[in-house]
Amino acid sequence: MCKQILRNYSKRERRWIFIYSYRSLINDDLKDISSFPQSDEELFYVSPQFKYPLTPDQIVKLLENRYEPTVIVHKESNQIVAYANLYNYKDDECWLGNVIVSKSFRGQGASSYLLETMIMKAKSIYRVKNLLLSCHSTNSRGLAFYHKHGFKPIDMRITKLEYEKRMITIQMKLEI
Fold first, then answer.
1. Most buried of 47, 60, 80, 89 (most Cβ within 10 A)?
2. Which ranges constitute the DSSP H helices of the chain?
3. What is the pTM of this model?
């Protein structure tokens, strides 16, 4: 399995395999994950269902219809640095959700390692051919990241917010 993940990385990125590991979420991780979002807007990108500040109870409640809740661990410090899960598994596709990386580990390969781990899980455990996700149009960093990793826009929807505001959500797909 590690060789499969290694093939997806450039030589520069392969060092991340030796820095990070992944495992299933445990209750002790919830407090750390709750501290990742730095603002209401950032938390909205993780899930519009969450209310700032994020609490462990909100994560647990959302997990009722999620699969493979996964954390990325920094091997040297044993610190939780990223989190995501899968949902809406049907036929040959499922959705990636609740992607978040600790502020102190952004730009250090944790997000790429997390994404490759979730792709591997979707493919090997659920045997899906497509991994889908939703990314808000105002999340330019997220959109660029997913595009870099091969996700293509397939649809968009308008999300109604408070006070008559609306946001465009871009739905993206990766064939795996």
1. 80
2. 2-7, 15-19, 30-34, 40-46, 56-62, 110-126, 140-148
3. 0.91
